[in-house]
Specification:
about 500 residues; binds adenosine monophosphate; binds magnesium ion
């Protein structure tokens, strides 16, 4: 089989990357392969032992893939608010861009295949746990319709990776519309100035948003489009209780895809200040701070794009500032639209904000399970009067009354059961709950992938009640210690 490569970044963007060579894995074995995604990409997956062994060699980096032009992207980034001028792909190697049968273009990247020019003191490797975690969570996000990088495969390298202890090594094959980040713009703005920033903007527009090429100021239009995509993304994350955990500017993709599944987690017992990452000591990236960080990150993108915007039209500098000021209201509109759908409402009304604020107040006061609550609200509409008992019971009385009145105010004729069904189509029943993920990874690390595979199959089908999935919709037992996540795959 040949990969339908067409490596535009390699060809057109010299100076924006460093060539890279993967390390040869001692004994590569496929642990997971995403047949559905392979098919979308026009790739024929493994179908017997020989092809599985071939795929394992390709996707561990042990054997070069014909037509690939392996490279590591250069990028910078603000990490926890501090600018690091030199990051880059330290543990990721792009194999190339695949042109799918439908004409779309996808980066295929190996994460954990060894050192590159940007590795600094790192080993360029990844341990099996974080790799399987990224596969599971990113595929769950895709199943919930949230823009994300995807996972094509996990290959065990047969080697060991030293972290706080030694772990089996693995390589994740990540698929993305592209890996261009805010940090990519920051790198070239900081080191090389306007011509490079303009070239990168031009390439990004051609690749992702070709309709912007003929606008009056394309780099400015690019900024606006990325703001729209990122505002939608953060609104979508928050609608499923997702905490990204490391919204550094090097982890914010121009395509609007979720990228970097290091320390992410889902809120269960709701708290706006929920933080899971062990290194986020001041809660910079807490659940409820994500909209402010979105705004801050968009200001950093604006700064990096400014030389290119200015070179098209110096008068647009003021427009750029005004555009960044619109981030909170753009986010708010998308967030409220999501909440309306989650609550079975179809039209915007004047006092919706109070209804939403009230919902989150009760949820937090009761420590209600975020995911379960929205399914319970649909059950309430179906006539299950006890549906809210596990979520605070009587504490919901006033809010329930307001919600009910609000539902009635919308062309009252629409059947509540129809609304409940619509809610269940946007409110997941199954998410990768933190304690389930940890349990599955513990077993996987010990060599047994069954639990991981079962959890993956369940979260790939998030909305419908599944047989044999009892308990998978429940939050962690109250006696569990607080959940902690770690950076670094
Ligand atoms: P991340 O936390 O994934 O956003 O990574 C931040 C930076 O650290 C990026 O430049 C990574 O390429 C680099 N990095 C993280 N882990 C490693 C590693 N094990 N080896 C080399 N570079 C790494
Ligand atoms: Mg990263």
């Amino acid at each position: 089989m040949r990969f339908p490569f067409d490596n535009s970044f390699f060809k057109e963007m010299q100076g924006f990357y460093a060539p890279a060579v993967a390390e040869i894995a001692p004994n590569p074995q496929i642990l997971a392969f995403n047949d559905a995604l392979a098919q979308q990409l026009g790739l024929e997956g493994p179908h017997d032992d020989a092809s599985a062994a071939q795929w394992a060699r390709w996707l561990s980096g042990a054997e070069a893939v014909e037509g690939s032009d392996p490279l590591a992207f250069a990028y910078a980034g603000h990490q926890f608010g501090h600018f690091s001028p030199q990051l880059g792909d330290g543990r990721a190697i792009l194999l190339g861009e695949v042109l799918a049968p439908n004409g779309s273009r996808w980066d295929v990247q190996l994460k954990g295949a060894g050192r590159t020019e940007f590795s600094r003191s790192g080993d360029g490797k990844a341990a099996i746990g974080p790799v399987l975690r990224e596969y599971l969570v990113s595929e769950a996000m895709a199943a919930m319709g949230i823009a994300t990088t995807r996972a094509l495969a996990v290959v065990a390298t047969g080697g060991r990776v030293q972290r706080e202890k030694a772990h089996p090594g693995a390589v994740l094959t990540r698929v993305a519309a592209s890996h261009i980040r805010i940090g990519t713009f920051q790198y070239f703005a900081a080191h090389h100035g306007e011509p490079y920033v303009s070239q990168l903007a031009h390439y990004s527009i051609k690749r992702h948003y070709p309709d912007l090429a003929t606008t009056a100021n394309p780099p400015l239009a690019l900024l606006e489009r990325v703001i729209e995509r990122q505002a939608q993304l953060v609104a979508d994350w928050m609608a499923v209780g997702f905490v990204h955990g490391v919204m550094n500017t090097d982890n914010v993709a121009i395509s609007g895809e979720t990228i970097d599944y290091g320390p992410c987690a889902f809120v269960d017992h709701f708290k706006a200040g929920a933080v899971f990452s062990s290194i986020d000591r001041h809660g910079r990236y807490a659940y409820g701070r994500q909209p402010q960080i979105l705004h801050w990150n968009m200001a950093r993108l604006a700064e990096a794009l400014l030389p290119a915007i200015h070179s098209v039209n110096p008068d647009d500098v003021e427009t750029t500032k005004a555009l960044v000021d619109t981030v909170p209201s753009r986010f708010r509109a998308k967030w409220e639209a999501n909440l309306r759908a989650k609550l079975g409402l179809s039209e915007a009304q004047d006092h919706d904000r109070e209804l939403f604020d009230g919902l989150f107040e009760v949820m937090e006061a009761q420590g209600a399970d975020f995911t379960g609550l929205f399914r319970a609200l649909a059950q309430l509409l179906r006539g299950d009067v006890d549906a809210l008992v596990p979520f605070g019971g009587d504490a919901w009385d006033i809010w329930r009354y307001q919600w009910s009145a609000r539902l009635q105010s919308e062309c009252g004729a629409v059947d509540l059961a129809v609304r409940a069904d619509a809610m269940d189509r946007v409110n997941p029943l199954y998410i990768p709950r933190n304690h389930l993920v940890e349990g599955a990874l513990e077993q996987a690390e010990a060599g047994d992938l069954h639990q991981w595979q079962k959890l993956l199959a369940i979260v790939q089908n998030p909305y419908r009640l599944q047989a044999d999935a009892e308990g998978y919709d429940q939050p962690a037992p109250a006696e569990n210690p607080p959940y902690r996540t770690f950076c670094g795959t």
